[in-house]
Every structure is written in C-alpha cells, then in structure tokens.
Amino acid sequence: MSERCNGHGDDVVTRRGWIRVFFLVSPRDANTAAHVIANKNSPMVALLFHCLGFGFLFKSPSHRPSIAEAFDCLVEDKGESMAATGLLLGLILVLGCFSEICVAIISFSSLQTTLVVTASHPQRLLRAGEDKITVRWGLNQSLPAGTDSAYETIKVQLCYAPISQVDRAWRKTEDHLSKDKTCQFKIVKRPYTTGNQTLEWTIERDVPTATYFVRAYALDADDHEVAYGQNTDAKKTTNLFEIQAISGRHVSLDIASVCFSVFSIVSLMGFFFVEKRKGRKAQQ
C-alpha cells in the first residue's frame, strides 16, 4: 500500500468530530468510524465520501484526495478486506438520499415574479364542466434580456384563494412547493416560448366549489420551479373568481322527483279515503 493511500492518525480526532456532526452518531461509533477512515483499508469509503463532498475527512487539510487518486487507492487495495467499511457505506448511501431530497426542496419565497398572467371569464358564477377561462401568460417585458434563459417549460395551474383555504388543511399553503397544496388543478404544461401565449380552458368537471386564481410557473431543465406569475396580487385578494361544482342534478331528474312526490301524496290520500269508506260500511 503506497503512502498516499494511508490515512493520517493525527487527524482521527478531527474526523471523529465531523462524523458526529454529519451522521449524528454516538461518540463510540464516531470514534470507530474515524479510525476506519484513517485506516488504509478504506479507499472505497474515501471515494464515496469524496463524491458526496466530504473528502476532507480522509486527508489533512493541506492535502485532500482527488477522485482519480481515490480510484487509484481503491484498485491498489482491492485484494484486502472491505468488511470494515460496510457500516460507513450504508451511512453514505443514506446521506446521498438526504442530499437529493435537500437539493429538490424549493421554496416559493425564493422564486422571482417574472411572468405576467391574466385570466378572462364571464363575470358571473362559473360552472364546472361548462364555462371556459381564457388564460394569457408571458414574460414581463420590462425585465432585462436573458431573464428567461433558464426557462424550459411553463406550468399553468388553478389555485385556491385564501378565503377557500380557511379550516381546510388539504388546501393549505406551504412555502416549500413540494408540500404546498394551493394549486391542485393543472390547466396546461407546455414548452416555454418567449412570446405571449393564450389558452382557452374549459373548467374540468371535478373542480370543487371554491374561489380561485390562476398561477403560472416557469420550470428549468430539471423540471424545478424557478419563477412564477399570477393573475392576482401578492396577498391573493384581487381578480378572483368563483366556480360552482357539478351538483349531479339535471332538469329531467328534478321533474321525475317532483312527479314521484306528487304521486306518493295522491296515493296516500287515496289509500286514506278508501280505508275510511270501508270503515263506514262496516259500521252500517
């Protein structure tokens, strides 16, 4: 084993501290892991830690391993036992999963308002499954050129207004977009273009009764939200509209229910009259 593949015993204490910080393990486990890292039998762990950004755990601050160097050490040490690195390998994989989750968290407050969105509709109570909304969106032309350089896709959604979110946890607004339940109805998702776009959207039949507004998100190549725009103000109090959900009732059903109601009343009265006549005849 070459010298460059060996650990630095003087750094065990420092490594132990970092391991406790990043992995939240007990002092004894951290001490064991630190000695494993310092041991020459850990090139695989060194490589994986380096790829996750924790390569400084393996060398002194003045000499941190490159990925190529870690690969060389791994090949040089391939014949030796790797059992000592099993626990750390599992921890690294878990850390990798957490890293992906953290990267994917996007907060609404971090997005820029770069899109102009309008929604036109009949000035009355809208009916789900019948009425249409004309949505227009585009980049705010007052912004500097290149503002939309990262925009790849536009996602337009129908969103609940605050008045329709009260006491409804399933519609709650969250700053983390992965947890946000404000916008639950997709209007359209299409590639981004620099010009203004228009879409006439028929309100879907499963939209519940509530007050709404329209919001558009600009997505990057990774399908992550990077900007937005909406047809209302920041407090979501202007340009709102109400939608009435489908009740499941039709005119023919209403007529049939009325006819059956009248028939039942007439039948009851007829039965009562017949029974009364029978009673009189019996008395005679």
From TrEMBL:
GO molecular function: nitrate transmembrane transporter activity
UniProt xrefs under InterPro entries: Transptr_NO3_Nar2
Coiled coil spans: none
One biological process term in Gene Ontology: response to nitrate
Keywords attached to this entry: Membrane, Transmembrane, Transmembrane helix
Keyword Nucleotidyltransferase carried by entry: no
Transmembrane intervals: 87-108, 255-274
GO cellular component: plasma membrane
PANTHER family with a match to the protein in the record: HIGH-AFFINITY NITRATE TRANSPORTER 3.1, HIGH-AFFINITY NITRATE TRANSPORTER 3.2
Protein name stated in the entry: High-affinity nitrate transporter
Organism: Gossypium anomalum
